[in-house]
Amino acid sequence: MSVEAAREPVSGHFGFSDVVVIAAGAVSGAVGAYAYYSEPLRPLAHSFTLWIVLIVAVVPGMPRRRAVVRAVCALIAAVLVFYLGKAVMYGVKYAGMPYRIDLPTLVLWCGLAVAGGVVAGLLLDAVGRTDRRGTMATAAVVGLLVADLVRRSDRSGVGTLAVATAFAIAFVAWRGIRTPRQAARVALAALPMGLAGLVVVSAPDFFEGLSGSLSS
Taking the CB of residue 176, how many other CB atoms lie within 10 A of it? Predict the structure, then answer.
């Protein structure tokens, strides 16, 4: 191996086709819909843990433009199947009872999926690289996961979410950390990233509340 090759940032992806990426988003949405009507798993339906894991699974290692497209498509698929799945699960659990998908809310979350997908594609394609950008991207994901747990810490079922967050962080570490030195840098950067992430994960609640007040 040449010196130049040895200095190349290390990254990688799972080699999924775009169809598989969209299918993964749909599965993520279906799991969230099921969790919504499951008492033990309900915290997962109200957190971003599933979506963050989805992005970390399909985006890192891709060219930036393709990473953006993949992230947007995966998140939109997750949103659409989540709301459709909620309707289906409602019909199964409460047979004969009418259920109407709130179109403004669905449009809002599709818009947030596009915005989140663009940002995730631009920033998180570097997860798995050993350079500074890869380290900071991995720390940002860990910070988001911790921030999302903090956001939901005053709700019931936080223990379930804490376990899911621990597994998610382990997955992110496996995808993004290559050396003990990089692990230490990620740990140091995760706290300030988490403070910024708290604003990010709280923003959808603000917009959803604003949309509800405008439509009422």
Answer: 27
